[in-house]
Design brief:
Elements lengths: L8 H10 L6 E2 L5 E8 L4 E6 L5 E5 L3 E5 L10 E5 L13 E6 L8 E8 L29 E11 L2 E14 L6 E6 L5 E5 L40 E5 L1 H4 L6 E2 L2 E6 L7 E4 L6 E5 L5 E7 L16 E2 L2 E2 L19 E4 L9 H4 L7 E7 L11 E6 L4 E7 L5 E11 L15 E9 L2 E8 L4 E7 L16 H34 L4 H8 L5 H8 L12
Parallel strand pairs: 14-15
Antiparallel strand pairs: 1-25, 2-28, 3-4, 4-5, 5-6, 7-8, 8-9, 9-10, 11-12, 12-13, 13-15, 16-17, 17-18, 18-21, 19-20, 22-23, 23-24, 24-25, 26-27, 27-28
Protein name: Glucose/Sorbosone dehydrogenase domain-containing protein
Keywords: Membrane, Signal, Transmembrane, Transmembrane helix
Organism: Spongospora subterranea
């Protein structure tokens, strides 16, 4: 299934007049907050942060932009490099999809991009392919547009980038999806990069004799099957050393580019565990299942794990290719995690709010900071761009993701209902920033042309590690409940005393009124005595 879907013209027109609402809803507002940092980021699909705080954006149209900092306005972004527009192939899930900025930038002012081009793999043949490709994200016929991809090194001087070296060319494809994917730095300064099988996702694709991307003389099935053959770049994760990244030699498989995993369908995005150096790879499925696969630290082994595509999808044989003769003897690794596109997840909130049917794992990042508390150290966040949901795993005691403890962070409340007044949340890239006492997750929303910021606010109840008194979040919660209950009880007592005082005052008589009530009419004898002269009042009455 395609990773980056287009925006049909009619939806764009409706958006102008109906003001399509951009909405992402936090599942638990007591833990997270979400806001749009930048709107109008064009077609940015990949971001990188330098150690000096600059933000680079890789635009699908073959453009690299630079922003002074994460606090800059979106208008502050400047274009520092652009691929020849006639050279860049952007139809479907093609374009500039991978980018990595040198870890010592600007001291080492280089950027690497992985970009689809309207050419074939042979760098000596620079002729434009016949214009059978659609414009933008759609409009063409799957299987009719042949294009390759290139790994390009860019040198930047005074915010102007120039193509310094085309390091690699490959990934010839006639499908509108399953092309290239991600670039990420290895711990040793080398780089990992991913590419899809380059096949059609609308029909079974074993290659077509005589097609521009078909390798003549190779009698093996091609198309989706190229994921299995180690002399093809398709359906692989590759590794390139630091020295080769800085060299001027065109790299090929076995000559500077090493296969570290195969049998993948569309490994669009992956993230590297900061402790184990294992790769967590999202592999977009075909009909039934999506996968997250783990590649054990490729720097520590020469083994090449095989994840089974096109024979296997999730835990089962593929209904399209599983009966092929090559599948009977294929030994593959089962996915670390797989999920059904029809059933989704049973975790709280997912069934109600995460779309099912068309699903695709699309963004991954590990949090390496300490500001969010120990429970968030080395924790994985990931998204499914078609479900339009963001998830996270709690860690095990070994500080690796715990499959049994996944939770929902964010969703789009219009995804399940297909409300056209609510724009899609199409997450295609994640990155974290950690500066001083602040940390945040940033998410590239391709469909809304926006960069979204997600904060973990549960950390406001977490005592810093340096404190001599360490309280668990559960203890803090209990304390808060007890204090609130005590305040409520005090309020009830005060209210009762006030009411009692009011009732007592209501039934008491004023002093003047009491005196007037005590005086009764005098008897005739008393009246006679009162009227007598004072000197005779004490004398006996006459007999």
């Amino acid at each position: 299934m395609a990773m980056i879907s287009g925006i049909p013209l009619w939806i764009g027109v409706v958006a102008i007049f109906m003001f399509i609402e951009c909405r992402a809803v936090i599942q638990d507002p007591s833990l997270y907050s979400e806001s749009v940092l930048w709107s109008g980021t064009n077609r940015c699909v990949k971001y990188q942060v330098t150690r000096s705080g600059q933000i680079f954006c890789g635009d699908k149209d073959g453009i690299v932009r630079m922003f002074p900092s994460i606090t800059s306005s979106v208008e502050a972004g400047v274009v520092i490099w652009t691929n020849d527009p006639d050279l860049t192939a952007t139809w479907g899930d093609r374009g500039l999809l991978g980018m990595a900025v040198d870890q010592n930038y600007p001291d080492n002012p280089y950027i690497w991009v992985l970009v689809s081009v309207n050419r074939l793999e042979n760098l000596n043949d620079n002729s434009i392919r016949p214009n059978n490709c659609g414009v933008g994200d759609g409009g063409g016929i799957d299987g009719s547009c042949d294009a390759a991809a290139r790994l390009i090194r860019i040198k930047v001087n005074n915010n102007v980038g120039v193509t310094d070296q085309i390091l690699m060319s490959g990934w010839c494809s006639n499908g509108m999806s399953h092309h290239i994917g991600n670039l990420a730095w290895a711990k040793d300064g080398g780089m990992f990069l991913s590419g899809g099988d380059g096949s059609s996702y609308t029909v079974e694709d074993r290659g077509t004799m005589g097609a521009p991307c078909h390798r003549d003389g190779d009698t093996r099935p091609q198309g989706a099957w190229r994921s299995q053959w180690e002399d093809y770049t398709h359906g692989k994760i590759l590794y390139i050393s630091k020295n080769d990244l800085m060299g001027n030699t065109v790299l090929t498989l076995g000559n500077g580019a090493r296969v570290v995993a195969k049998g993948l369908r569309n490994p669009f995005r992956f993230a590297i565990h900061p402790v184990t150096n294992d790769l967590y790879v999202g592999d977009v499925g075909s009909i039934y299942f999506e996968e997250i696969n783990i590649i054990p630290n490729p720097l520590a082994t020469s083994n090449i794990p095989n994840f089974g595509w096109p024979c296997f999808e999730g835990p089962t044989l593929s209904p399209m290719y599983g009966a092929d003769s090559g599948c009977s003897s294929l030994q593959s690794i089962k996915p670390w995690m797989y999920y059904s596109r029809s059933k989704g997840f049973s975790i709280p909130g997912a069934q109600e709010h995460c779309m099912r049917g068309s699903v695709s794992p699309s963004a991954f990042a590990f949090h390496t900071g300490t500001v969010w508390g120990s429970a968030w150290e080395n924790r994985l966040v990931w998204a499914d761009s078609s479900m339009q949901c963001v998830f996270t795993f709690e860690n095990t005691a070994a500080s690796v993701p715990d499959l049994s403890k996944m939770s929902l962070i964010s969703y789009n409340d219009g995804a399940v209902t297909a409300d056209i007044n609510i724009a899609q949340n199409q997450w295609v890239d994640f990155f974290f920033t950690d500066t001083g006492n602040t940390s945040a997750l940033y998410a590239a929303n391709y469909h809304q042309s926006a960069l979204t910021k997600i904060n973990y606010i549960g950390s406001r109840f977490i005592v810093p590690k340096s404190s001599s008194t360490k309280l668990s979040s559960k203890t803090v919660f209990i304390i808060i409940i007890v204090v609130c209950a005590a305040l409520l009880l005090l309020a009830i007592i005060v209210f009762a005393l006030v009411r009692r005082h009011q009732r007592k005052s209501r039934f008491s008589e004023p002093p003047q009124q009491r005196r007037s009530i005590a005086l009764e009419p005098l008897s005739p004898l008393a009246e006679t005595i009162r009227n007598r002269p004072i000197s005779t009042r004490n004398k006996a009455p006459p007999v």
